[in-house]
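Hi R.,

As promised on Friday, here is the backbone we talked about, encoded as structure tokens. Could you run it through your design pipeline when you get a chance and send me back a sequence?
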């Protein structure tokens, strides 16, 4: 299934473009300069795309491909790429999400798990909240025996400004149910890391 094309709201695009023009002036730039003429509208459209997760229902996504299945072993979807915006600096952070759940009579389409990641990532975020929101959504919707989420990410707010640490990686995790047992978490980590 092809990705659905994103259609920005023209009124929001125009309002954002006005703000960007003002910001360019505050920076000392000329918004009428040839290279910047279309930049305000581009940013207006881009910011809507990067925050489109506010208008999507992650639970509905999971429920759209819910199947009864008597499978009670770990299901792992690893290396899900994501891109998000840090709510503190509006700079990108990005990396990989690894998710496992142990079904309790119901499974969901694997692509739906990746889409849930995108919904929450396409909001202003902090990595810790992103980790918990993904976990909570899967737990609440599928009601599995347990869920575990691990996120590994690079934050441009740490690399481009402030401490300027180019290779710093932030890792967060959250889990429920069966993953409270160390043995189950270790099995997940072996499957993810190899």
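Update: got your reply. Pasting your designed sequence below so it's all in one thread:
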């Amino acid at each position: 299934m092809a990705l659905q094309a994103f259609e920005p709201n023209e009124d929001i695009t125009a309002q954002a473009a006005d703000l960007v023009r003002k910001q360019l002036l505050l920076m000392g730039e000329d918004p009428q300069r040839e290279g910047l003429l279309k930049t305000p509208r581009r940013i207006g459209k881009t910011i809507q795309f990067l925050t489109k997760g506010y208008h999507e229902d992650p639970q509905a996504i999971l429920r759209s491909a819910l199947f009864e299945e008597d499978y009670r072993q770990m299901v792992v979807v690893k290396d899900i790429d994501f891109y998000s915006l840090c709510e503190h600096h509006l700079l990108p952070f990005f990396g990989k999400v690894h998710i496992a759940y142990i079904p309790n009579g119901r499974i969901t389409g694997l692509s739906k798990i990746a889409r849930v990641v995108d919904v929450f990532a396409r909001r202003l975020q902090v990595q810790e909240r992103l980790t918990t929101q993904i976990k909570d959504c899967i737990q609440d919707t599928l009601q599995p025996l347990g869920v575990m989420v691990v996120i590994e990410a690079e934050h441009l707010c740490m690399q481009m400004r402030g401490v300027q640490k180019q290779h710093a990686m932030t890792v967060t995790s959250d889990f429920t149910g069966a993953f409270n047992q160390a043995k189950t978490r270790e099995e997940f980590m072996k499957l993810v890391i190899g």
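One thing I noticed while checking it: The chain has a mean pLDDT of 95.

Thanks again,
M.
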